[in-house]
């Protein structure tokens, strides 16, 4: 199973003040930043910045409790991801940096520390996640627009579930909802089934009474993985090696007999993905949210013309950009109610007493194991 | 330009009666038939059958005036096309064949000879086309259900335009209408632009004030082809060779500047098609209706995820299956009003005095030049 790394960057304790801060600051914060894209091992550095003044109108001060280190975050730093962060000239309002920086991190669980005037529906202590992409979550505390956060339902999520709820669970949830109307007993086909999204797909599908056929790579401990996914609710788990078995089409047909498969979720691409489309019925939708094989999606044109296949992509970032605050909060309520299993994870705490160089090294080590 | 072949199978003249027919028949008809799929040169044969008795209730007797020989018709005979004709045990009600046959041909202009009781909205002399796929149009006359024909508007179409209106023009019309809402000045990108559908796309797009970027294969007389397509209304005509020119993206961007391309029509597949998708804006739809290259449609997954590309197929047969009689007739009225240019064609008349063997050879020759 993929193990998630979560970063904790608590504010520096008061005895560190003298070392890092001007006398006017009460606490000091940390951020993992870079000034130009490139190899994260080279470009990332840790930066100390003063505590935040009270937030301006319609803004919030938030403390970031836990921030995942996602593969896409690394791609952003490398400069190869379509979403780009903005350069920021100040990490604490009123305190200009000598040189603008990018702050790493997209996803996080944050807690509201202080609410500016004019903010409605949010209060101190509320848990929130970022509605704005590339918000720079690898930091201790930030001042943000009230419209850039989504409030989480109170007391329903663990800290780890809350910190990892922004990207993967909603990707799974929306892909299962937005493309094909599925009812109890209908089937969903997916690859990369042990990815974070894939595991969420299995759980959400099972909660709706949908059946899943899940493909994963073969591996020495395949039976353990199959059991883990079955425990999450997977109906069948197969490996890409099974695709060379000609009898598999017949088997799948027997399973799905009176309900041809109309939804396939893909994060792999390349040949195995094309082979999987032969299990689809007419009028099916193939939704891609990743390309782990780095191969293009090569499909027979006849599948589009004669089987009426439709191929889409899904990007949760676009979903946030095109949906209202109310829709976002409704989505979070729906996800919280599902009580998804916490992803396998480790929490890496960058402590206040570490020097910037030590913090950088710890962050580096974490990314290597991610 | 592709030249269409159209088959004319007039009824046999009365002096042929004695040779082919029982004494009770007044005229005799011809059909191009086969009993098993395979190489058309081997499996096709011509068959003579008696004239039709009056049609039963809710049926029509029709005379087939002109029937195209389409590439898909050949694929049907070869057994490699998804739509299969039904075996028929009788070409004239009440007269059983010794062995059931498939009758070739899908598309035709027919004229109503006689109307059975209970048929409404159709009368002797009306021009009709086939609403049912694989109706066996390579024949002189047939008895059909009234619901299996679509009435054409009177006096608006030439015989050739009417005979070729069932498949290609509606494919073009519907692809331009059903996937993206396009307004005057919007752009459409297509390949195979000198195909029958491609030429219809150019004309229909021009009639709606849409601009087209059209790709064709390079050839010695490319300037003549470019002029022909421009005369039909093409905005720009390029060859697949032009795709290797890196500056082309910039050129296309200049052309389409404030209106990124949101619709691409594809009948080719393979690498040039994938290269063309780089000209598309976000939220574009790629609609495939053919695969002349016989290569799969291989697209970068990132185009689906980050540009929100959606890939569909279009098959006019499915459209007919899923639309009402009123919708079909409205489509024909819309197409007739467009006054599309007659496709380049030759009419092959299989005369009554030809023997079955001669008729078969003539049909063979025609297909070779199609």
TrEMBL record, chains A, B:
Catalytic activity: a 2,3-saturated acyl-[ACP] + NADP(+) = a (2E)-enoyl-[ACP] + NADPH + H(+)
Keyword Cell cycle appears in the UniProt entry: no
Subcellular location field: Mitochondrion
Cellular-component GO terms for this entry: mitochondrion
Predominant place of localization: mitochondrion
Major enzyme class: oxidoreductase
Listed EC numbers: 1.3.1.104
Biological process, per Gene Ontology: fatty acid biosynthetic process
The keyword Transport appears for this protein: no
InterPro entries documented for this protein: ADH-like_C, ADH-like_N, ER, GroES-like_sf, Mito_Enoyl-ACP_Reductase, NAD(P)-bd_dom_sf
Domain Enoyl reductase (ER) residues, every copy: 42-359
Keywords, comma-separated and alphabetical: Fatty acid biosynthesis, Fatty acid metabolism, Lipid biosynthesis, Lipid metabolism, Mitochondrion, NADP, Oxidoreductase, Transit peptide
Sample GO molecular function, one term: enoyl-[acyl-carrier-protein] reductase (NADPH) activity
CDD domains: ETR (cd08290)
Family: Belongs to the zinc-containing alcohol dehydrogenase family. Quinone oxidoreductase subfamily.
Matches recorded under PANTHER family: ENOYL-[ACYL-CARRIER-PROTEIN] REDUCTASE, MITOCHONDRIAL
Listed name of the protein: enoyl-[acyl-carrier-protein] reductase
Gene name per UniProt: ETR1
């Amino acid at each position: 199973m993929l193990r998630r790394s979560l970063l904790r960057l608590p504010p520096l304790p008061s005895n560190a003040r003298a070392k890092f801060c001007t006398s006017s600051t009460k606490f000091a914060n940390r951020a993992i930043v870079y000034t130009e894209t490139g190899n994260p091992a080279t470009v990332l550095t840790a930066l100390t910045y003063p505590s935040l003044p009270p937030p301006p109108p319609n803004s919030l001060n938030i403390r970031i409790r836990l921030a995942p280190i996602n593969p896409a975050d690394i791609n952003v730093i490398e400069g190869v991801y379509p979403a780009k962060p903005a350069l920021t000239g100040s990490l604490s309002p009123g305190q200009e940096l000598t040189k603008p920086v990018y702050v790493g991190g997209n996803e996080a669980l944050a807690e509201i520390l202080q609410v500016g005037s004019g903010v409605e529906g949010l209060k101190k202590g509320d848990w929130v996640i970022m509605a704005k992409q590339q918000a720079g979550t690898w930091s201790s505390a930030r001042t943000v627009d009230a419209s850039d956060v989504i409030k989480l339902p109170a007391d329903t999520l663990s800290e780890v579930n809350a910190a990892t709820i922004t990207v993967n669970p909603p990707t799974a949830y929306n892909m299962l909802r937005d493309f094909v109307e599925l009812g109890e007993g209908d089937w969903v086909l997916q690859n990369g089934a042990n990815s974070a999204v894939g595991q969420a797909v299995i759980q959400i599908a099972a909660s709706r009474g949908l059946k899943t056929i899940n493909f994963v790579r073969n591996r020495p401990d395949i039976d353990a993985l199959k059991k883990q996914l079955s425990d999450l609710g997977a109906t069948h788990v197969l490996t890409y090696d099974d695709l060379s078995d000609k009898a598999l089409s017949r088997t799948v047909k027997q399973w799905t007999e009176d309900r041809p498969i109309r939804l396939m979720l893909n994060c792999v691409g390349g040949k195995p993905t094309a082979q999987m489309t032969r299990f689809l019925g007419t009028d099916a939708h193939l939704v891609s949210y990743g390309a782990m094989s780095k191969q293009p999606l090569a499909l027979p044109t006849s599948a589009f013309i004669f089987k009426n296949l439709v191929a889409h992509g899904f990007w949760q970032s676009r979903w946030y950009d095109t949906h209202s605050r109310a829709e976002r909060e409704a989505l979070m309520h729906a996800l919280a109610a599902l009580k998804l299993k916490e992803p396998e994870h480790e929490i890496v705490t960058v402590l206040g007493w570490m020097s910037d160089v030590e913090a950088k090294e710890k962050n580096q080590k974490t990314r290597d194991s991610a």
